[in-house]
Hints:
By secondary structure, this protein is of the alpha+beta class. 23% of the residues lie in helices and 27% in strands. The chain has one domain: archaeoglobus fulgidus dsm 4304 superfamily (archaeoglobus fulgidus dsm 4304 fold, 2-Layer Sandwich). The strands form 2 sheets. It has an 8-stranded mixed sheet, sandwiched between helices. Strands 9-10 form a two-stranded antiparallel sheet. The longest helix is centred in the middle third of the chain and has 14 residues, at 86-99. The structure holds 2 DNA strands.
Amino acid sequence: MQVVPPISPSVNTAEARAIQQQLRTRVRLEPCPSPVTRVAGVDVGFEQAGAVTRAAVVVLSYPDLQPLAAAVARRPTEFPYVPGLLSFRELPALLDAMGRLEVTPDVVLCDGQGIAHPRRFGIACHLGVTLDLPAVGVAKSRLVGTHETPPDEKGGQAVLLDGDEQIGVVLRTRTGVKPLYISPGHRVTMADSVRLVLGCTHRYRLPETTRCAHSLASHGCWPSRVAGQPVDTAAAVYR
DNA sequence: GCGACAG
DNA sequence: ATCTTGTCGC
């Protein structure tokens, strides 16, 4: 897919926060365009003791969740991990990978927060706004906000609040596992976000999109099975 | 000053 | 995120 200008050059943490305050005005939480037929998942891993960032993006058919395409990209790591500024560390490599994609997804599920962020601008917002693509934040742990314990059953939910503002949903994707922190990133509603995550989830805690992206980013290959089906590596090409 | 803190 | 083997539980 066509990815426009790179991302911000080397910035310091103060500048990064200022950029977030500026870009947050571009976030639009509106109904996700329908129908959704292609869902992407993105994730990053590191090599050379963190010196190199490896990003992966996969595209699955929806709601079938069968592999359609994927892309991987590597580039020097130029920003440290700072809570609240994750996108400045991972987005450059992710955009490189997105640029190598042959097909354009209808929505992207990101590994990290959407608006459930101190400045309401997590990595899902940054990626979504940058590509003007619908994006959802799917985090494995909490960054900000308070919540009750969601019911211990698949689909169990609890509202994630920052004061009196709802910034996300704490979602149990399967019985007996730690819940995920879901929040809109761009061009999706809170309800769309939960629906899409559940729609992409099968037998594991993480949605299939995230599982595939993580597998490609850290192991360099697809999982043996996606949504319960053996993967046809030949059809799911990537470069 | 003392914790908390996506990946 | 990453360094790393076995092990407890459904």
